[in-house]
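Project standup — Tuesday

K.O.: blocked on the structure for the chain from last sprint. Re-posting the sequence here as requested.
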Amino acid sequence: MKTTLDELQALVAVIDAGSITAAAARLNQTVSGVSRALGRLENKLDATLLRRTTRRLELTEEGSAFLAHARTILAAVDAAEEQMAARREQPAGRLRVNAATPFMLHSVVPLVPAFRRAYPRIALELDTDELNIDLLERQTDIAIRIGPLRNSTLHARPLGTSRLRVLASPGYLAERGTPLTVASLADHVLLGFTQPESLNRWPLRSEQGDEWPVAPAILASSGETLRQLALQDAGIVCLSDFMTAADRERGALVQLLGPDTADVRQPINAVYYRNTQLAARIACFLDFVAERLAAMR
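H.V.: unblocked you, prediction finished:
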């Protein structure tokens, strides 16, 4: 007998969910039904795909090899269904988007209501992560990244750029004074990133060029953390417009050293795997975000 899609879905769901019970809940099936599907699959293949213990499930070598094929088959079926939906101009399916917390909060979340109105059949799953991730391992369709991309086998689509500015709150400036020269920053509390170190080279002109290396007194891994610190009068920060434009408009943060600031813009890219035609649900999200980011410049 031939392997069925239900059996492939059962295997993939068990691996992704971590247990037969969790897989059954994800597939809206009974535990016994999922277990029987796995048993039928192993009988048809005449191979043991999973080692079952009282505490965990573990793929055998044969299971690992077959799982890759199962994912490819299910992805092909999903793509075929999405292409049919695209012909009816109604992209559908689950779309998993990953971005750093600041970009997710300030740029993606405000667009979600309008996107859902335009594409009600797409179910969004939003995930935040400050580090680069493995898209396949995390089952992610799109990862949005700020800054230069590393060499990668992934496809990338530019979504726009965002300018860097040196900022402080009026409260901090009232207490510590306003720096009038780049060199005078040495007398102030500076906020910076734990990594990458390139983010602690601010776009300020000096005799050294268009970058000014700083030694932050307070370090954080997330730009959103640094933004909140700056809003609480903790120090001077260098952040991107996408997360601080509203703060500057309402006067909560003030740009410093404007004449000395070089026009440095961080690239914003969406990265994704693309083995065949780009899925409609991914393409429409990228078009939607790119159009609105361009309008915000």
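K.O.: great, moving the ticket to review. The chain is about 40% helix and 20% strand. The chain has three domains: 5-86, 90-161+267-295, 162-264.
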